[in-house]
Amino acid sequence: MKILIAGGTGLIGSRLVNSLTLQDHNVIILSRNPLKHKNKFDSRVNFVDWQSTDIELLRNIDAVIKLSGESVAQLWTKNVKKKILNSRIDISKNLLEFLKRNQISSNLLINASAIGFYSKKAMNYDSEVNEKSHSGDSFLSKVCQLNEESCAIFSDEGMRVIHLRIGMVLTPSFSLLIGLSSLFSVPIPGIKNHYFPWIHIDDVVGFIHHALDNNLEGPFNLISPESISHKDFYHTIRRHYRGILPWILFIPRFIVKMAGDMSEMVLYGPKTIPMRTLESGYKFKFPDLGEALHQIHK
Asked: Assign residue 218 a region: left if phi > 0, alpha if psi is -120 to 50, beta otherwise?
């Protein structure tokens, strides 16, 4: 297949590009700075700038993958929150303009969203959520909603759209993130459905391959089918990463809330099920957290 990827130089994008190349797919990365990233990939990978017009190179694109967007992993100032929200809309508009300018008539768009779609300001949940559940009411939920809604312009062009609602991605560099995430991801005793939705990066990439090979459409939760609480998540983490201080697991909730709106990144975590992902026939490579951590910690 011939695949155009916007955001192909990031964490997930880089892993995906290498995986697609190994399977002899023709990959073109849409980047704002092609020269900066070109040496990271196989020589068979082509780059184009967002301002490019190269109809010949971009002829017969089979699928477009959109992984771009302002990162939420930064201090949420008023200005940053505006950038996070606007980037989801602007990138979709810019991508459609790029496709039209280069006469690309692909039938498929795969869009990276997040399980923050279901995030609510209430801590307690009466039941689990899945891809058919309603959206939440937090800032993260608004970001995910706007992201997915912004892709309606591709549907209007006759493209089949898939939304990947991705959880916390475990990678070989995951240990570098634990310190920050631990400060915000704490178990609150007595609170139900306080869950940590995670997925191994190989399953993110694996499902994208699965989506390219099958006639899928709509939202899919990319999280492990093994539901695990924050408490159990961090007890498992501690067995694999001895450097985590035990006291981090017991920071009171009121201290976490002092982080402001950013605390919602982990405080509003319902029990999320990858129902449609499993129904699509995808088989998870790493459904067990212990096995996933062992693999990335080799």
From this structure: left
